[in-house]
Each structure stands twice: as structure tokens, then as C-alpha cells.
Amino acid sequence: xxxxxxxxxxxxxxxxxxxxxxxxxxxxxxxxxxxxxxxxxxxxxxxxxxxxxxxxxxxxxxxxxxxxxxxxxxxxxxxxxxxxxxxxxxxxxxxx
Amino acid sequence: xxxxxxxxxxxxxxxxxxxxxxxxxxxxxxxxxxxxxxxxxxxxxxxxxxxxxxxxxxxxxxxxxxxxxxxxxxxxxxxxxxxxxxxxxxxxxxxxxxxxxxxxxxxxxxxxxxxxxxxxxxxxxxxxxxxxxxxxxxxxxxxxxxxxxxxxxxxxxxxxxxxxxxxxxxxxxxxxxxxxxxxxxxxxxxxxxxxxxxxxxxxxxxxxxxxxxxxxxxxxxxxxxxxxxxxxxxxxxxxxxxxxxxxxxxxxxxx
Lengths: 96, 255
What we know:
With 96 residues, chain A is an all-alpha fold. Helix content of chain A is 82%, strand content 0%. Chain B is mostly helical and 255 residues long. Chain B has one domain (2-254). Chains A and B meet through helix 1, helix 2 and helix 3 of A and helix 3, helix 4, helix 8 and helix 9 of B.
């Protein structure tokens, strides 16, 4: 029988790896701000881009886990969530 | 330099607080940034939203590791909460601000006492079959939660947790774990909007995120081993405090 339970192992691994990356990035940015180095802003900027990308990747990974467990409705819902998030961002930034 | 250390400590405190209770931590971060560091609210909110997203991201790791997240509920409620938030921010000029604040305060006080009273004893940390199956009302309420949160300018955690705990009937720890992940997803849109509009003060957000990353991880871990009674009492106090703040803003506007 197919395992129906959702495996969160891959998501926690991905989140854990991202967490270390964020820590490294923002520790470096903070250190650079201490020394008033101009690179700090650049590191901080890309750190935030990294956070936004990681969150999107986590949603997609959750979706793929649903697909593996044959929960296709939830697989679609995960991608729908990404589309809704993008639509909200685009609508608010460019049309409001 | 002193300010930078202060920002790190603020982030650490907000992370511990938010991660432990299954909230974003903005309830603590915004007063700290505005009152202690003198930032204006328009600068503090984008910083707080970004920090809340990071906090939820890091504290949810601990909950996920221990199987204390109902991912199906997270995905569905995130969709409704995001749509609700988009709707709420669109109609925020139509409804009178004071009416919204008073209604929200009454709702908070009701939710606070219901939450404190709790429901049938259930300390199981695992997802179980207690989950209600007909969730149509919950979907509608999560949409409203998103709308109300956007209308009054707070994170949704303070309403989401009672909703998941009392209405979906998940165990308290699972409700908190699920709530943190929903907050992470639903605050992504707001954080991205502020980021694209260049409204995030990078020199402040970096130390705050550094602190909140560590605080959120520790808070999330402490949250997974916390006693439900203590969590309920602390959460009750937070809700009453928020209700008080909303009402005092309203009376302030009247006077």
C-alpha cells in the first residue's frame, strides 16, 4: 500500500540549509554595517532576495511531496498558492 | 554601533516570543522599534513584516522536525489568508477605521477567553483524527482573518492560532506549528511588496533578522516542549494587551 503520510524530511532539510545561509548572509551584513562598509547594503539586499526565493522553493517542495504521496489536489493547491502570491505582489506593486 | 546591538537584541526577543507562541513576533517588534529606537511606524512596519517572515520560517523548522505541522491545513489556510489580506488591503479605505478597531477588539477579547478556557483536554503533540472534516466555515473565517489583519495592520497569528486550535481542533502544539508556517507564507507577499518598493531599511533589517533567526530557532524549540497551559495563559495576555491597545487608540481618536 502506498504511504499516504506526508514526509517533511526534505522540507526540514531545505529549511535548515536555508537557515544557515540566511545566518551567514545577515551576520556578514551586520558585521559590514559595524565597519560602515558599503558592501553591507548589497549583502543585505541579496539576503532578502534569498529569503523570498527560499520561501517560494519551500512551497514548491511541499507541493512535490504532495505529488509523491499522490495527493494531487494539494499539489495543485501549492502551485496555486505561489501563483496567488505572485498575483498579489504584481497587483499591489504595479496596479495600485 | 549601540543601535545595531540593540536591533540584534530586539530581534532575538521577538524571535523567542513569536517562536514560542506560534506568532510572528511583530506584536513585540513594532513597539520596540518605534518606542525604544524612535523609528516612525512607516519604517517599522516593513522591517517587522520581513522579520516576521524570517521568524516564522526559522521557528517552523523545529515544529516540522517533530511532526507538529498539519501541512494540508497550512496550504489551504495560506491561500485563504493571502486572498483575505489582499481583499482587506483593497477595501481599507471604505470602512471607518474606528469601527474596525472596536469590532476587532471585541473579537480579540472573545477569542482570548475562548482560548484560555480551551477545549477537550488534548496534549498529544501529533496530528490526530480529532481534526474536523467539514472545514468550509474555517475557510471563510481564515479569509476574514486575512482581511481583518490587513485592515488593522497586524500579523494574522493572533487570530489564526485560536481558529486552528478551537475550530479545526488540532492539538495546541500542532496548531502553533501550523500557524507559524501559514504566517511565513502569508507575510511573503507583503514583504516582497515592501522590498520591491524599496521601503525596507536595510541597515536596520539586517541586525534584526540576525537576532530573529537565532531567537526564532530557540523559541520554536522551546515551543515544541512547552506546556499547553502556560502557552494558553501567555497567549491570553497577548490578546488582551492587543485588544487594549486597539481600544486605547480608538478612545485616543475620540478625545
